[in-house]
Amino acid sequence: MSSTHNPKKAPILETLQACTQRCHAPFYTPGHKHGRGMPQELTAWLGLPVFQADLPELPELDNLFSPQSVIQEAQELAAETFGADRTWFLVNGSTSGIVAAILATCSSGDKIILPRTVHRSVISGLILSGAMPIFINPEYDPVWDLAWGMGPEAVEGALNEHPDAKAVMVVYPTYQGVCSDIEAIARVCRDRDVLLLADEAHGPHFTFHRDLPMAALAAGADVSVQSIHKVLGALTQASMVHVKGDRLDPDRLSASLQLLTSSSPSYLLLASLDAARRQMALDGEALMEETLRLGRSAQAQIAAIPGLRVLDGPSAPTSGFTARDRTRIVVNVSELGLSGYEADELLDEKFGVVCELPLPKTVTFIVSLGNTQTDIDRLVAGLEGLARQFRREGACGGDRPPLAFPELSPKPLCLSPRDAFFAPVETIRAIDAVNRISAELVCPYPPGIPILMPGEAICAAAIDYLHAVKTRGALLTGCSDPSFQTVQVVQE
Ligand SMILES: Cc1ncc(COP(=O)(O)O)c(C=O)c1O
To answer: Into how many domains does the chain fold?
Structure first.
């Protein structure tokens, strides 16, 4: 798309600001009417301007699903900034963009090829669309207890076996910033005329610095869904979906988004997307330069702490790991005899450091444009303190059996996730559920990777893993029984 707009403009933000200055008697939603009816404790705490800007789709503010003025212009600016042909703003996170991308590509019964380690929103997309997943098990690294991305040869193999597949979805990057060879995957998809959808929730910053991995659209993806809120300067839930090329029907994507989105989108979220886009268009490279500097400095200092290891590359070569985002710091604490959950708790309680993602062996820290040198110093000091204490206490190596991510089923599903979701179910004891077909989507959160999913036969390793991570402090989401003593399965 050729540049037609002034990147210094932020049309939604500027118009919203102007609207808050206009004196009038409001007889429209929201009920608090410019903050005047808000509970006083909220306005005292957050300030009146936030609520004055909480406006509905007034004529000058355009309409999210029929954009003709400021939203249209802001979305076009975003498309130019992120290297897309067309961009949609999302007020319900990348979750809604991922579900919509699946609905826009797959009808009921259509096949989609994807890694088993997808985010739970993908399973929602499968349930709503009726698409049949063809899962690829990404390579698992036992040293790190992490799954990497999908290799292009695995995608090619799956497409050979399922030439009728409609789409391939990649998680690019993973939560740990690991990137698979998306250029090669894109070539394979183009050769077969199959759409490539990228869950780029963790990668919206990639466009802005040469030392970051290549952005999914630049590498040849047709669609990219990005959580602007996760790493850039937008409010929580503010995301974007971008499309490049003409292989995906934009009207169907638009219609799918409308199925999933509130008819009262928050202008605070939309304005934050607009402002975050402008910030990155004007200063993105410098902001990422500094973020990368902080990330590299943290990585080097933590790597020098005895008892800790920092993820740099895979422990054995794999095509599921071709690049890494240096703004993600992944620390393996297992040599201290601690789980990632315990390390996370101790870091928070004793050192005032809070990570993004604890897992059985690792803790992952997101360094982003909001971090400072002081944060990094605190992180390094916290990890030094932790290592000193637990090495000195002789806990090194630990006496607890290692907790490995279960080998999740690469087998075809017994039922489509949709059929399992709507099937008659029964509730049974979790320990009796092995080989039964799950009716539930159960995942520790974060990272939100389902361990049980509707339609999949339940394996013993998955039950053991869920009990073990729960004992070690993970929050299980999606289970009808939060204690996970029972589970819902499809009636036989
Ligand atoms: C890989 C991945 N994809 C998608 C999502 C959903 O993103 P959002 O929270 O913006 O809905 C997440 C959220 O954690 C994620 O980790």
So the answer is: 3
Summarised one tens digit per residue, pLDDT across range 319-359 is 889 999 999 999 999 999 998 999 999 999 999 999 999 99
Least confident of 216-220, 235-239, 367-371, 475-479: 475-479
Q: Which atom, in ligand 1's list, is nearest to the CA of 95?
A: 11
| Atom from ligand 1 closest to the CA of residue 92 | 11
Q: What spacing in Å lies between the alpha carbon of 97 and ligand 1's midpoint?
A: 10
In whole angstroms, what is the distance from residue 173 CA to residue 117 CA?
12
Structure tokens at 112: 């989609």
At 401 the pLDDT is 54
Q: Is the pLDDT of residue 421 over 50?
A: yes
Same domain for 383 and 471, yes or no, is no
Residue with the bigger pLDDT between 414 and 279: it is 279
Q: Is 129 close to ligand 1, i.e. is its CB under 6 Å away?
A: no
Instruction: Tell me which of 233, 253, 282 is where a domain ends.
Output: 282
CA of 201 to the centre of ligand 1 (A): 5
**What is the DSSP annotation of 137-191?**
---EETTTTEE----HHHHHHHHHH-TT--EEEEESS-TT-EE--HHHHHHHHHH
pLDDT band at 258 (very low <50, low <70, confident <90, very high): very high
213 and 310 fall within a common domain: no
Give the whole-angstrom CA distance, residue 160 versus residue 138: 18
Predicted pLDDT of residue 138: 87
Distance (angstroms) between ligand 1 centre and the Cα of 239 equals 10
Comparing C-alpha atoms, which of 113, 119, 85, 347 is closest to residue 241? 85
Helices (H) and strands (E) in the chain, counts: 16, 19
Cα 166 to Cα 489: distance, rounded to the nearest angstrom? 29
Could you tell me if residue 75 is inside a domain? yes
d(CA 387, CA 393) in angstroms, rounded, equals 10
CA of 36 to the centre of ligand 1 (A): 35
